[in-house]
Amino acid sequence: MSKDFFRDVYDVVRLIPKGRVTSYGAIAKYLGSTRSSRMVGWAMNGSHRVKPKVPAHRVVNRNGMLTGKHHFPTPYLMQEKLEKEGVKVKKDIVIDFKKLFWNPIEELKL
DNA sequence: AATGTGACATACC
DNA sequence: TGGTATGCCACAT
Fold first, then answer.
1. Which pTM value belongs to this model?
2. Which bases in strand C are touched by protein, i.e. have an atom under 7 Å from a CB?
């Protein structure tokens, strides 16, 4: 239990294994507020200035789409990083998103 | 201080 | 089957 919602978000995102991805909703749900998914995205907005670095590129929407790529230094960076980690991205959509999906609730709930 | 907005998700029409 | 409406909470103006 953290004090700040944001901090929780950053913490969870940092725990995302390399080559895996998760969704805003999953994080929000894990934090206890299924409908606070917007906050997760908002938190990511400041993730670039947070240390240690937050792999925001591993966070996509429920559709598996890299909706946040526009917020990166360069839109390509997000996809580049994902592909570098073994995540295939096609047309801004994560391939096998369902398969690569990392559910914090399942992984961290214990 | 109040209003608006946002990298989403779910429910309803 | 797809657009519209609403919920959520923090931050910016």
1. 0.91
2. 7-12
pLDDT (tens digit per residue) in A5-51? 888 999 999 999 999 999 999 999 998 788 888 899 999 988 988 88
Give Cα separations from A9 to A3, A17, A35, A40, A53 (angstroms).
11, 15, 14, 6, 12
Residues 38-67 of A with CB under 7 A from strand B: 38-42, 44-45, 47-48, 56, 59, 61-63, 67
Nucleotide C13 C1' to residue A62 CA (A): 30
Tokens of A81: 């990083």
CA at A17, C1' at B6: how many angstroms apart?
Answer: 27
